[in-house]
């Protein structure tokens, strides 16, 4: 197995390994170590089946079951493997029909074009996310990644002192309202959860911002001042020197660490062109996103 840095210290391309086959303990340990070092790994030309993607992903922890799959009747699910998330613009199981312009599933998914960290609106966010490409549009549809460790390092000392102990509230409601989409559901499931804005990687000890479009409040701050500050911080963290844009090829698998990386999908003509990716996510057990006491009001 070889890893070629394409964005040193952030993104590596992994070759010399067939992840369609069962991995050895040594190979798993090598990939884990590379994830600690890079945070984003690309595995090109890996023609995984659904089953093989699930098996490969399970090497790195317990898999999340997507909420949509939990709520859907088995006969209506697109995939037999319940662990797979459907990242496509297809109209359910009908892969010959694209979602209509006003389809609520399309509206909901448009928020994936905002910078975010997967499942940060849960008490424990996602660990690794793994995305495998099956069909790509002719133009657009890239996935961009932003290095939150480098973004934290580049903050001035005054801002670091301000954010180091900051507690923020994440909710799926906040990200969707940014695009004018109202999320409906049980109030208890939509309540904001609290996370630190700055987290420490449990292996490397390196500090990172834990930003996401799901953040809509800062403890002790008025909502307007909180959102203005968060907008500024996100603009800082997504400057081009911190960002890698992945142009998908069929059978690419990209794996990233949600503790230290934000990502977003980029626009493509989703009403005319097909895009199909399969997502697996590792439960965030052991993440360094702890729940500290509420911060005092900001000056």
Can you tell me about this structure?
This protein is α+β, with helices and mostly antiparallel strands and 299 residues long. It has one domain (2-281): 4-Layer Sandwich (Double-stranded beta-helix). It is 23% helix and 26% strand. The chain contains 9 helices and 17 strands. The chain has helices at residues 25-37, 50-57, 67-71, 104-109, 148-153, 157-163, 172-177, 187-190, 223-237, and strands at 2-7, 11-15, 40-43, 85-88, 90-91, 94-98, 128-135, 143-147, 167-170, 193-196, 198-200, 207-209, 215-218, 243-246, 253-257, 261-265, 276-281. A 7-stranded mixed sheet has the order 1-2-3-15-7-17-4, covered by helices on one side. Strand 1 (2-7) and strand 2 (11-15) form a beta hairpin. The longest helix has 15 residues, at 223-237.
The CATH homologous superfamily is termed Clavaminate synthase-like
Order of adjacent strands in the largest pleated sheet: 1-2-3-15-7-17-4
How far the N terminus sits from the C terminus, by CA atoms, comes to 52 Å
Secondary-structure-based class equals alpha+beta
- Percent helix: 10-25%
Radius of gyration: 19 Å
